[in-house]
Amino acid sequence: MKVIDLRSDTVTKPTEEMRAAMASADVGDDVYGEDPTINLLEKESAERTGHEEALFVTSGTQGNAVAILTHCARGDGAILGSDSHIYIYEGGGLSALGGILPLIADDGEGVVSPDDVNSWCRPANVHFAPARLLCVENTHNRAGGVAVSPGSYRATVDAARSKGLKVHLDGARIFNASTAWDVDVKEYTGIVDSVQFCLSKGLGAPVGSMLCGSSEFISEARHWRKRLGGGLRQAGVLAAAGLIALNKMTGRLAEDHRNAAELSSALISGGLAVEKVSKPTNMVYVQIGPEGPDAAELGRRCAARGVLFGAVSERRFRLVTHFGVTAEDVGVSAKVILEEMKAS
Ligand SMILES: Cc1ncc(COP(=O)(O)O)c(C=O)c1O
Prior knowledge:
Bound molecules: pyridoxal-5'-phosphate
Number of helices: 14
Order of helices and strands: EHHEHEHHEHEHEHHEEHHHEEHEEEH
Shape: globular
CATH class of the largest domain: Alpha Beta
Strand order of the largest sheet: 2-8-7-6-5-3-4
CATH superfamily of the largest domain: Type I PLP-dependent aspartate aminotransferase-like (Major domain)
């Protein structure tokens, strides 16, 4: 039985081209700055995002932690969306590792409003943890994989910077956002102080994220990466796949978005309540009513027929398209989900 895995774009496996490039990668000791393939990936990532330098990190979580620890000191506040990946899914790293206070604001539509940013920028007063940093996420996972528009993104970033805050972009899927809006990725990445993007999700590399910023920022970030145990040695074997992710795989994300749109239409035609998103990308979130199986039970039934997805709450589930999922797979998945929904 063919398995169609819609749980996440993190399940992608390296392509044959990546595996071949990894096997023949030119390597050195990256802690000494001597790995030519890492150096090339860092240079190309910096150029692509409009920053002076970049740093290879092991994961998106590590990239976000290193960025926050670099921008903030103990007792500082970081404005975070209440639905953001950093706040919900990264183990409270900013507080555990840095003694940094999350200043929470609504980001249910994908981005914190400029007004909420302004209201966290309180006058200097011994009672308050001073806001030093705003973190934004784009595309925004829990807001339905929405690609936040360049306009509303810029309004929030500008509000923060005009108050003297640094801005970090959790751009785990920033190339999905730039693809959805058909803009150069720099429209998002070039106006923030730092950005982390993942090579390991829809871009298909097995490991790694890139953290980009000014030379001064990256030099301090390199210390934090080392403190967190992220200084790798012959990491060029990973960077070889990362270069293909950056240069080739970013060009095919529109296909994943088309497949997600197809999946969404098929489920809507079959009567399911797919959540509406202002600019969808490769994620489809579905709400199921009180009748019939709950999301976990539906997931088990579909898994038995080779269609995998994740329940995010009792009556809500998520489907994610990626390069391991074809247009045909999407049709099969919709059929299986609709049949299992009805077979209660
Ligand atoms: C928006 C977002 N940020 C950060 C991460 C963390 O990436 P990693 O799993 O590589 O730590 C993820 C992972 O899914 C994510 O969706």
